[in-house]
Amino acid sequence: MATVVEPLTNRPLTELPAWKDLEVHFQKIRELHLRQLFAADPERGERLTAEAAGIYVDFSKNRITDQTIELLLQLAHESGLRARIDAMFRGDKINSTENRAVLHTALRAPRGTSILVDGRNVVAEVHEVLERMGEFSNRVRTGAWKGHTGKRIRNIVNIGIGGSDLGPVMAYEALKHYSERTITFRFVSNIDGTDFAEAVRDLDPAETLFIVSSKTFTTLETMTNAQTARAWSLNDLGGDENAVARHFVAVSTNAAEVSKFGIDTANMFGFWDWVGGRYSMDSAIGLSTMLAIGPDNFRSLLEGFHKMDEHFRTAPFECNLPVLMGLLTVWNTNFLGAETVAVLPYEQYLKRFPAYLQQLTMESNGKHVTLSGTEVGYQTGPIYWGEPGTNGQHSFYQLIHQGTRLIPCDFIAFGQTLNPLGQHHDILLANVFAQAEALAFGKTREQVKAEGTPDWLVPHRVFEGNRPSNTILSDRLTPEALGKLVALYEHSVFTQGTLWGIDSFDQWGVELGKVLAKRIIPELDSKEEGKLEHDSSTNTLIRRYRKYKEDSAQ
Ligand code: F6P
């Protein structure tokens, strides 16, 4: 039975014995260079690695010793990570500020298992929805589902934002190799009308199906885009309201709002309030993914998630990939003072993975108070960002190699390419290995001088090195591998959040801007000067915008 979970310990993180030991330990090893650590320990690159569920993580190029890992593991135990993992998987209401269970792991639990939330077995409900999604996807993919005029669907447009967009876009791009190429997929998220206009400009409404994806079905951007899509469809389909049922389906937890919009709830695919938006790509929010890659591949994706879930739930912390990655992020953030993590996939299909991770990591761990509401006394979630390799190398890597900031990197690569072309893959992989090597070991003044570099140029050509990185390898980018990779990061984020003692599953920080925008919208139309009651900057900006509007109306 789900219960509300109190914070595990009221003892601040920085007062735990392991934290104190880590502070002392850090002072001892802070000057050590990765060159020394590797030179003194020939086995390091084999030992400081871990492998599970077909994912290999080399974390040896972090500024750590074996003792660092021991102390971080101790910190995990003292922070109550084991109990917190158990509570999450059990369905306890660990999202305490919203009084909700956190059960994205139930979305990929095998049929026949049981997880109870408020007395209901949610796994059975998950599989019912998956069945309906599968039937619907097959009908659309085979052409059995027809549009209002009898034409088959050739275009699918997902309308959603945040977790109702970033996961679907990322998964579509990541798994394009497996996708149905006769169907065009587009994604509309931004309230900027350009997003919708460009997405549909070459599409035939008679062949276009919209998936309106919104957990709440009240999000301003999504509802505005959905209304625009409705008008765009009906305008071309003779204004017949019956067309909506053939061209719109909804993914939501809010059946009442779906009905109000005019979508038949028979064409609604549900999920539940225990799925956070940024943890929802494997719920019905993944409908566009299933339409693209088919139900069997979607089930492989879920199996991948589940394998990593089981690893996270059961493996001892010392060989638990998400735990180790989470602990290293805490180390880099709180002891080395790193402010960001660069995620660098050497796999073109993962080009949207960094954008996806930005919401997963920063909406989860961008918090300044602990579960008990007290101000944290340490940094929390770092800034995640990145681009696929090798493009980044010719752009921002200069700063990572020689700038003044410490930027830990996650390199992600696959042993086998999905598009074997000449030597491309060897060159790609040589680059990923070379970058991690260069960051760790750099190039000394002596080495630069020995190359005959004039003295004045030497400082410019020195690479300090000692820049930490993880290298994450797997054999091949399959739906299953993608599921494992996403779950790896989900659980790493959870590990970090648990140590920091924060609620990784709420997002109150997005509220204020939404409220203020709603207040400003009518003011942009108003001709009554005197009514603006914001600060002088906001008032002036609003007046200037009104002037632009007036000018364009003339
Ligand atoms: O504004 C943030 C947020 O609430 C995200 O957490 C969520 O993924 C996104 O908005 C979209 O919400 P919805 O799916 O309810 O439209």
Secondary structure elements and their pairing?
Layout: H1 17-29, H2 34-39, H3 44-47, E1 49-52, E2 55-58, H4 66-78, H5 81-90, E3 116-117, E4 120-121, H6 122-142, E5 155-159, H7 166-174, E6 184-188, H8 193-200, E7 208-213, H9 220-236, H10 243-247, E8 248-252, H11 255-261, E9 268-270, H12 287-314, H13 321-334, E10 340-346, H14 353-365, E11 383-385, H15 397-402, E12 409-416, H16 424-441, H17 445-450, H18 458-461, E13 469-476, H19 479-500, H20 511-523, H21 536-553
Parallel strand pairs: 5-6, 5-7, 7-8, 8-9, 10-11, 10-12, 12-13
Antiparallel strand pairs: 1-2, 2-13, 3-4
Structural description of this entry:
By secondary structure, this protein is α/β, with parallel strands linked by helices. Helix content is 46%, strand content 11%. It has 21 helices and 13 strands. The strands form three sheets. The chain has a six-stranded mixed β-sheet with strand order 1-2-13-12-10-11, sandwiched between helices. Strand 10 (340-346), helix 14 (353-365) and strand 11 form a beta-alpha-beta unit. Helix 4 (66-78) crosses helix 13. It is globular and about 75 Å long. It starts with 16 loop residues before the first helix and ends with a helix. Residues 1-7 have low confidence and may be disordered. The protein binds 6-O-phosphono-beta-D-fructofuranose (F6P). 6-O-phosphono-beta-D-fructofuranose binds at residues 161-164, 214-216, 219, 222, 277-278, 363, 507, 510.
